[in-house]
Design a protein that fits this description.
6 helices; SH3 type barrels; binds biotin; 2 domains; 5-stranded antiparallel sheet; 7-stranded mixed sheet; alpha+beta
Amino acid sequence: MKENSLSPASITDNLETHFVGQRVIYYPSLTSTNEVAKREAQQGAAEGTVIIADEQTAGKGRKKRVWLSPKGNIALSVILCPDIAYLPSLIMLASLAVVNGIEAVTGLKPQVKWPNDVLINGRKVCGILIENEVLRNTVNYAIIGIGVNVNLRRTDFPEIKLTATSLSHEMGRDVSRLSVVRNLLVEMEKLYLMLRAGESIYEEWRDSLVTLGRRVSVTSGTSRYEGIAESVAEDGSLLLRHADGSLTKIVAGDATLRD
Ligand code: BTN
């Protein structure tokens, strides 16, 4: 299949949003869309502006990891300027936008591994990196960086072959990046407007989690915890039940499923 174009016009034409994705800045190749999005935000880019690249040469993952971004996949960042009260919900918003966007295009039902990895059949299909600038209780900007493995051939990347998947792998055919991008932008705005209207997106996010009820190990800063992921709080924290019956509330971290 000829690779879809990700030109700004192909994304913005008749896009059913008010502001998310109404301005798109496209690069064939870029170090990191999050880095350029930060620069654009600092220079006053409008809320909803999208930076998108066909490939990234220095894609950033969480915890200073590298994110592989070869051609054929999605690497984009969205600039939002939310009220500080909504910051904890951005993790939920981003992962749900991806889950719903992928489902709309493919019919697949991805799940979220706390806090915001998107998995299909237990393997990671999307990573999300959110970077905020907050000054005196005001959010100057929040960058929602999203990388989706769309037409990634797992066998080309032995380092992630066992843990990652792609939409093309799951579907057995190439998948339109453009359709996934457009759908996830529509979903993102819908969820953002819900937040701004005071509606909760917590239940939908909680119901999409693959983590709950599972034995997990979680690293948070320099600490490491083991236990059963019992529930999540409305602020997105994970409640982990230990073997001795005690409970730890983990605000931010990385979870590995143990069974
Ligand atoms: C992770 O799972 O560790 C997060 C990966 C986030 C990758 C995306 S790709 C678009 C945006 N630009 C980056 O450099 N990183 C994010």
